[in-house]
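user: can you give me the structure for this one chain? tokens are fine.
assistant: on it. calling the predictor now.
[tool input]
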Amino acid sequence: MKIYITDRVNLTAKIVIVIAVAGISGLSDLNAGPRENDDPGKGFEPGSFIFDHIADSYEWHVFSFRGTHYSIPLPVILFCRESGLNIFMSNKFDHGYSSYNSFKIENEGPDKGSIVRVNSNGETCDESGKPLDFSITKNVLAMFFSVMVTLLIFLTIGKRYREEPSGVPKGIQSFFEPLIMFVIDDIAKPAIGEKKYKPFLPYILTLFFFIWINNMLGLIPIFPMGANVTGNISVTMGLALTSFIAINFSGNKKYWGHILNPPGIPAFLKFPLPLMQIIEIVGVFTKPFVLMIRLFANITAGHIITMGFFSLIFIFGERSPFFGYGITGVSVLFGIFITFLEFLVALIQAYVFTLLTSLFIGAAVSDEH
């Protein structure tokens, strides 16, 4: 059955409505007491405020009102040998203050923020180890949403290309076509080569738009946006791993020959002790590692700087209302400036990650000169 764009819009609207209704229905279950950093005696803690914003979590904090935090509970999916598969909503943990079904969210130590097993006294069972965690966390839900948005955009554009191959771009197609052509003409073709870029083009386009769209959605502080997806080391590691596979599984004889027997190098640097080979093999792994750290660090730094400016309002406000009101205007202006700068960084980081991946692929598949 042929599905038209109106059907896809209606389907997407229904999915969004279901998510919203499910989230709103869970708000009443999570109006627990104040968090640890809400203790009046402790004052405002900028570190907790900032890292609560950029960190992943098992619930989606929406807003706070008079010391009560309203959050959307998310599914917790755990597996361990003792109790098998466990599925429940994160509101059972009561913002991390309670344990449920022999599990709790660790609040301190190296496992802080992770789910661990506990005994009948609520103490962590070190001997049982952590369960396998397949939970739908904040970042996972945000990625589901970004994938849905991406599919809606590009299924719409693809349908119009099929219906009018030589027609004038219009609507959303006119916005994304220059970006698509930019990735093809200015990234894929020059980096990989005119003759060999086409097999890699689907991956290159997917990589660019996945990073860029998630970067952009992370700057909009409204549910289901605002999550720090590309500032999560696990996400950037996954992206780097896919690039690592694309680069090395596509490498030709020349590529591996240069790694295992680098040309133009004195023999004593290669045999009997393979110093150059070791360096080249280490380089195979450092390339995706640099991609991972670069994206993670730049996106996380932007969020930290923005939240740092807003933290100044509360820090100075605790000392004096006069300084609090005075710093508010400065913090808001700098926060807006950094946010606009982050919109530019969102595009630049998608470009840099895609360009470097394309260059590495191009070096792996290039022919002998």
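assistant: here you go. Strands lie at 59-65, 68-73, 75-80, 84-89, 103-105, 115-117, 132-133. Confidence is low (pLDDT under 50) at residues 1-37.
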